[in-house]
Amino acid sequence: MVTALFMEMCPNCSGEISHERLEKKLPCEKCIPEEVVERILDLEEEEEREAEILRVLSERNKLMKYKEFIEIQRESREFEDFFEKCTGFKPWSLQRTWARRILSGKSFSIVAPTGVGKSVFGIVMSLFLAKKGKKCYLILPTKALLEQTQKKISEFIEKTKISPDWIVCYSGKKSEKERISSGDYRVLVTSSQFLTVNFDLIRKGIEKFDFIFIDDVDAFLKSSKNVQRSLMLMGYTEEEIGLARSLIYEKRRAIRGGDYEEYLELEKTREEEIKRTDSVLVVSTATGRAKGEGIQLYREMLGFEVGSGRETMRNLEEIYTELDLDKLPEILKILGKGGLIFVPKDLGVNFSKKVLEFLRERGFKVELVHSKDISGIEKLERGEVDYLIGVATYYGVMVRGIDLPQVIRFSLFLGVPRFRISLKEEPSLATLFFFQSISQFLDEDVRRRGEKIASRLRRMIPRIEREEGEGKELLRELHSIISSSLSDEKVLRRIENDKFISIKKEGKETYFFIPDFRTYIQASGRASRLFAGGISKGISLIMVDDWKLFNGLRRSVSWIFPESSFKSLDEIGKDELEKILEEVNRDREIISRILSGESPVKGIDLVRSVLLVVESPNKARTIANFFGRPSKRRIGNLVSYEVSLGDLSLIIVASGGHLFDLGLEGYHGVLMQNGSFVPVYGPIKKCRRCGHQFVEKNGKCPRCSSEEILDSLSNLESMRELAEEVDFVLIGTDPDTEGEKIAWDIYLAL
Questions:
Q1: Which domain holds residue 631?
Q2: Where are the beta strands (DSSP E) in 432-558?
Q3: Global pTM?
Q4: Domain boundary among 45, 64, 91
Q5: pLDDT tens-digit profile of 525-547?
Q6: Alpha-carbon torsion, ordered 711, 712, 714, 716, to 10 deg
Q7: CA-based, 20 to 30 A from 651: which of 106, 545, 730, 736?
């Protein structure tokens, strides 16, 4: 018995369909006759049902929108098989979500924790598309990652029988530049620095790329023109980019002035004059702190905005002990091989060299790694050395440029990672963090003035230090406020008595030290990575040289990781330590077997993708902001918010209230069929000009004849697109009668 009919909702022909058909995931009665429905539903596998629906529609010459849906599903499964052939295991849930987006032609940002498989995904997707004749470009942040990527590509093409001639991983050879210049490749892999210097060379050999994957967009934005370059490599012209840039400022002005009519006209201009490219751009970041005009261009031209993720996935045993270099050899013998040793930034490379010689004299195989010499990374991977030593800086090679989960077992810090601030030195990003640490001790009017500047500076990270201009000027202004405040003895005494800030005098110079928890989180995370069997167990050991800084670091880390618990090395018993090391070693053995292809382990989806549909845009935005600054995507007229919750990748979208209303059929939209009342619902349409709401399908407002119409059908189509990407859907409408009706409509539509 038909309970309700929905106009324009058949997933194949967009015609009228019963709620029963929607609930069974079937097209309408005109597309699929009733006599074959039972046969389709008797098929156990969803893939078999989809194939049968496709066959019936094709035989009856009724195949329309359903074809596109099936093609994406089939291509997604093809990618999953290819991924398994490359890596030895099926893609995880998040990777399947990303694949469906790319295969649907959507650009987006990946804000996910370190080690979730972003880089491997980018490599495999590039090779998969190359098999189909597509041109792909992988842009990496460091030379070290470039070399590691080249090795992974070599492994993958050997397993999949892809021709090595399709690939150019730029390593500095003249022949590689010649191939780039001629476009003789299908997959290009370079550093972001290479793109900055050789943009014209790349464009000489190719009109546009079909797929661009930017690994670590924060580093990519070190050159402010790289966003424009990436857009031009997608086929956009300088004129279109210039128009988009001007529209950003014009829209901002219209919004500030409350001129909604002008804003609509600007949106119309964008849609008419900036063509939609069929190229796909994916930007990846673990932090999502990328900001500035470039990111706004991505929003305006590609419909997505980078958010800020929370790095909530790690499996670390965090240990501390007092710094004593004489005890370091004994500690290394206990922990075993596969360690990264970090030296505080203020002690630098010179102190690193002293520690290097100290350990080598005692028989340890150690190599120094810094920006000018990364050869030690390969030696560690090959087993020629057992430890690497380097400086703990946020963008340093040791902190961000190494991904060897099968080798690295622990991170060891010879001193608490920190910023050293001198009021006589040129202001830097550390100036901002220092102000945030001492603002509570400043007079209220000074604090307010400084907070306004700090708020503006936070929006400008990470480009503050790399270019002159407003950022540098604001840093100098903030530096002046700090200097003036610290001339007050009362303020200075408050800081001296603080539990988390350290002050030291060297001759006539006074230095202030604050913990650098961002670098600690990144560096310690090298020892705990997501792999096919879970999150690898790792160890982080801090040899404390300043207890104030350690307490400050521990406090900051606990804000981000509430479960974080530092244990004293002296308090950990021998049995407990052996158990920890046993778990660490077991995970490395599993990872090594997986990477060698000897013993694949069934993957575990530690992160699943979920779509949450709420009623109002304010609720969607508020919920998303609980978890940081969300990534945003524009899908039609809808804005979706995406955040990482550790075990869930949550996409939040608003229905905007009711989606359907009774139509004009029968008596006020209600038919009498077989003695029953059958409501006929149509997608709600709303006039942008006069606000009139209606359900008629005539393309114009029946009241004012305007063609500026907001159609809930467009929102439903966008929600369907999102639902196809995720593992499951949650409907979170209001707990009342209206909310129940809205939820029922969404349930059937999706």
A1: 606-750
A2: 502-506, 509-515, 530-531, 534-535, 538-544
A3: 0.68
A4: 91
A5: 899 876 655 678 999 999 999 99
A6: -170
A7: 736
